[in-house]
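Protocol step 4 of 6: structure prediction from sequence.
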Amino acid sequence: MITSQETIEARESMLSVQNETTTHNCHLSPVNVGLQPLQNLTRGMTVLKLNIRQKIIIGIIIFSICFGCLGLLSFVNTLQLEDEVLLIERSDDLSNLILEVRRIEKNYLLYHDPALFTLGLDYLKRADTLLQELVDEFKKNEKKQTGKKLESNLNRYRELLLQLKSAPKETSTANKELNNHLRETGQAMVGLSKAISNFERKYILSINGELRSNLALSMIGIAVVIMALVLFFSLNILKPLREVQEATRRISEGKFKPLPIKNSHDEIQQVFAALNSMVEQLVKRRRQLVQAQKLSSIGTLSSGIAHQLNNPLNNISTSCQILEERQKGQDELSDRMMHNIMQETLRSRDIVKGLLEFSRESEYSPGPIELGRVMKSSMDLVSSQVPSNISLSMEIPKHIIVHADRRKLQEAFINLLINAVQAIEDKPGSITVTAFLDQENTVIRVNDTGPGMSPEIMERIFDPFFSTKEVGQGTGLGLYIVYGIIEKHQGSIRTESSPGEGTSFYITLPLDKEHTI
């Protein structure tokens, strides 16, 4: 089928635009395109310590680069295949034009019609124009040379055809030779045009082979990536998770061996570190709970001892009173000694009473209490634990009445005082308790001259089981209990401290408005 001139020109303009976008990269090897970034990134990953998230991101980037290059290469090959298909159509058009010229040649030799001669020249001109355009688009030298040979034959054929027109009509040897040369040149043109079409068909087959190779390489690459992902998840996620599962099982059985930490940047390894820390804290908390249970048992025991001490203290008090009534005024030294015995007996009774109140379980029952008396009672109870190098002092106005539970508030003060004593340790120091009014509240300040605390420790002092003391030296519950008691009284507690400058606890409690003067 012969394509019209307008159709051929439209195809030419479209192909010229498409060919400008085609580059020589389409002949690059897909392996070279994909493996070079992979090798570079692999070297970087061996140098850097990456976590799982970063490894996955890098893997996705590698995957995207490799298959993006393969996809781009396939797209370029597809465009080139389209160009070649259009090019072979035009080559077939050229071959059809030449065949049409040969047909006109035969008719002209038979009928010697001038119209046929003019039509043949027109077809030759169209074939020559189409050939010039094809030669400009040919990239291989072999096709260019074939095109130039065809161009030379077209020119030779035109010259022979013009000579044939001007030759006499009678049959002669010269005319026969001219006809033979014309037929030979026409046959050469047909052969060369078919050779050009064959070149294009072979090139299309080579592009198709590249597409199949790219598809096969893509499938192999996908299989490799899937295997790598399976291996990666198995080694870096599933295996560590099984280790965590086994470790938790051992913990439930009371057996635990710390998990090795290979890469602190890895999220799973960070879970290992957290699990190791958790177990270490669990062991520490268990010791502290055992210590707290011991203290609870001591509280119960001290309650029983306090009950037992009441009887001899009552006997001592009664005996001292009887003896004082009988012997009073006979000897000044005896009177002074009996008075001292009576005072110390009453003091011991008050301590035992305070110990009973402290150890006795009771419901929260707030009421008006005098702040100074509660603090004085708390100081008396801890006085036996205060070494001689530490002084206790209190400056609380008598008229301050707070709305609180006496036993709970006393427990909070005792814990604060013991904490201050333990902070000072063996160095000389002092503990001062003061109070002042602040609108409808009272503020109690407990200050010690201990070593102070860092900001990191201050953030955690009210956490349960947090302690800066050695294991077995404290439960880490004292300040946590204080915080809970103050919160229950609708008050607040805060801390001011600096390393080397001591510590101050500020407790804010609501006043009892009805009894406060």
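Step 5 (inspection) to follow. The chain has a mean pLDDT of 76.
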